[in-house]
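User: I've been trying to design a sequence by hand for this structure and keep getting stuck. Would you show me what you'd pick, starting by listing the structure so we're on the same page?

Assistant: Good idea, let's start from the same input. This is the structure you sent:
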């Protein structure tokens, strides 16, 4: 088998296993875990058996810290896997730049990160596994540097990828600074308290410099990773020609720079810089939206039998959804935090004590799901099969439905005290959960189709 194709299978397999593990550990699957002999309760979990639902945070401070550590480790493992998958996808298009050597190094870093994170979080909370996790992240950072050193741009789109990679590495360096705070017991203690307080009101954490650095790190990594995935999709379909296309790519670069600088600045200036992130994101999203409609070659009906056509329409719909269900709700929330413009009272009022946490959690999940499904469509573009298109459409439609309806759960409920049982919410039960089931079926089918095509 072609080495790069083998890496693509490995990346997909790791992503499916990791996401499947996360789903298995969610509260709706407590009985399934029990039937499999797995623990139904995890140390520090938010689940409260007295009310049979999740609280904002575990009432025990040590348990709360363990829960937040577990969340951080799990999502670092997921991000590492998706970053590995992105590099493999780029390698399939630019074999002259990214060879099997860099992919092998990246795979080792991903495995170290994933194994260390999962065992530390769920099996044995010892220094060895945490050290393996840190080693994996370091290897991934090194593979990013090696990729940057080998990169020789030949097109304007290459320049957009290089700028995004440099800024992504900068965000990784900020993340390393945040992690290094655990060397100091005093610094880490303050950081842990800030993370707990931020679950109730982010203003309470603003005075902690490490928490601000973490916030900047998170915005940088997620925004740039999704942008790179979008650019990989454009690369796969074919870079458009013409002056307007070149201008739109230059606008993407401008958006990357402004978004990253705004995110970095949260570390130093806090909420003032945080307000800049929304307009900065609008520049980036506007430029990628324009670029998606400049890419051509496939009519809508062709997307049902040609995976590259599906990728094109996935990029377009993904950008429209980003505007409608990430950027617009984000702007509405941002300008309503302290003034009752769209929400009465203002969104940060105590009467909304559950809503902002729900919004923040949902907001990041929407972006991560969008990132993952877009990357899946890039992979499926290598499979010339109407079945691949059908599976991809199932994944895409499920993702679009879930991300749209999640905003209704986050923002369309009346103000009031925190309800610890979101699973009875009408938007979740009637739209989000069925959409997630559809998306899951599509992803599973896509994985099997890609695997069978690779084994021919």
């Amino acid at each position: 088998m072609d080495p790069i194709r083998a890496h693509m299978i490995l990346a997909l397999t790791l992503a499916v296993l990791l996401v499947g593990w996360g789903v298995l550990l969610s509260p709706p699957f407590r009985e399934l875990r029990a039937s499999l002999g797995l623990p139904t309760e995890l140390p520090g979990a938010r689940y409260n058996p007295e009310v049979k639902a999740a609280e904002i945070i575990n009432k025990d401070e040590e348990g709360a810290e363990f829960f937040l550590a577990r969340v951080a480790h799990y999502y670092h493992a997921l991000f590492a896997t998706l970053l590995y998958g992105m590099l493999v996808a780029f390698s399939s298009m630019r074999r002259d730049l990214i060879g099997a050597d860099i992919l092998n190094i990246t795979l080792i870093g991903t495995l170290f990160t994933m194994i260390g994170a999962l065992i530390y979080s769920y099996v044995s909370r010892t220094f060895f596994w945490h050290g393996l996790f840190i080693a994996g992240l370091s290897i991934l950072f090194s593979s990013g540097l090696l990729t940057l050193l080998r990169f020789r741009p030949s097109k304007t789109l290459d320049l957009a990828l290089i700028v995004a990679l440099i800024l992504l590495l900068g965000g990784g360096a900020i993340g390393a600074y945040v992690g290094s705070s655990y060397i100091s017991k005093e610094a880490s203690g303050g950081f842990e308290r800030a993370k707990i307080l931020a679950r109730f009101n982010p203003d309470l954490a603003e005075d902690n410099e490490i928490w601000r650095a973490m916030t900047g790190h998170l915005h940088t990594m997620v925004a740039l990773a999704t942008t790179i995935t979008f650019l990989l999709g454009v690369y796969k379909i074919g870079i458009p020609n013409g002056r307007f296309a070149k201008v739109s790519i230059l606008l993407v670069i401008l958006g990357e720079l402004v978004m990253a600088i705004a995110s970095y600045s949260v570390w130093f200036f806090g909420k003032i810089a945080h307000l800049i992130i929304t307009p900065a994101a609008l520049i980036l999203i506007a430029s990628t939206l324009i670029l998606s409609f400049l890419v051509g070659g496939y009519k809508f009906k062709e997307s049902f039998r040609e995976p590259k056509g599906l990728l094109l329409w996935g990029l377009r719909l993904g950008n429209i959804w980003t505007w409608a269900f990430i950027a617009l709700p984000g702007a509405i929330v941002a300008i309503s935090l302290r003034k009752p413009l769209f929400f009465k009272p203002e969104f940060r009022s105590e009467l909304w004590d559950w809503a902002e946490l729900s919004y923040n959690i949902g907001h990041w999940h929407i972006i991560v799901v969008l990132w993952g499904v877009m990357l899946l469509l890039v992979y499926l573009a290598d499979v010339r099969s109407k079945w691949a298109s059908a599976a991809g459409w199932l994944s895409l439609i499920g993702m679009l439905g879930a991300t749209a309806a999640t905003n209704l759960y986050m923002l369309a409920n009346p103000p009031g005290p925190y309800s610890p049982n979101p699973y009875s919410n009408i938007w979740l039960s009637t739209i989000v959960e069925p959409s997630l089931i559809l998306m899951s079926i599509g992803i599973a089918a896509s994985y099997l189709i890609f695997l069978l095509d690779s084994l021919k």
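That's my pick for every position. To get oriented when you compare it with your attempt: The chain has a mean pLDDT of 89. The chain is about 75% helix and 0% strand.
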